[in-house]
Amino acid sequence: MTEVETADKKIAVLETIGITSDTLKNEVRRLTGDGYRIVTITCVDLDHDHVDLIYSFDRDLEMVHLRLKQPKAQPAPSISDMLFAAFLVENEIQDQFGTCFDGLVLNFENYLYLEKEVAKTPFCKYSVIRKDA
Fold first, then answer.
1. pLDDT (tens digit, 9 = 90+) per residue, 24-60?
2. 81 lies in some domain
3. CA-CA distances (angstroms) from residue 32 to 27, 81, 117?
4. Position 47 in a domain
5. Which domain holds residue 9?
6. What integer pLDDT is reported at residue 101 of this predicted model?
């Protein structure tokens, strides 16, 4: 963590570690082995072809973020087999952004929060049509 001092306060600047789908599970294993816990996974719609998946971890109020630039056409690896609670946010990302996860321990197949009559992923600014619509 780096601190930047402004005129009236110090601001903590957190570094984000860039990862690939091949290194995701090793990084998660390393962080949890060091005592970090998962906080959430954030999805950011980048363009027509990619999303960013930001995996946020915490230990003693210190945050670490992993950034995975994921092609929309390929499923991202699920970490729910390592951290069971991740299945909720991974299912939510599937519902809201259309990004699929390979190996989800409990897969609601795009219907955790959305009803079957919803045809588009609501938070995907490039309007991914749902597979079954």
1. 999 999 999 999 999 999 999 888 889 999 999 999 9
2. no
3. 9, 13, 39
4. yes
5. 2-73
6. 95
| Domains of the chain: total | 1
Would you state the structure tokens that stand for residue 74, as one six-digit string?
């390929």
Task: Report phi then psi at 86, rounded to 5.
Answer: -65, -20
Name the token pair of 102. Answer: 């390979």
What is the C-alpha separation between 37 and 47, in angstroms, rounded? 30
**104, 78 in Cβ contact below 8 A?**
yes
Mean pLDDT score of the chain: 84
- Do β-strands 50-59 and 37-45 pair in parallel, antiparallel, or remain unpaired? antiparallel
Give just the sign of the alpha carbon dihedral 13, 43, 68, 83: positive
State both tokens at 15.
């570094």
Locate 25 and state its tokens. 């599970």
Q: 3-state DSSP call for residue 35?
A: coil
The side-by-side arrangement of strands in the sheet containing 62-71 is 16-19, 62-71, 50-59, 37-45
What's at 97, amino acid-wise?
F
Percent of the chain's residues with pLDDT above 70: 74
95 in a structural domain: no
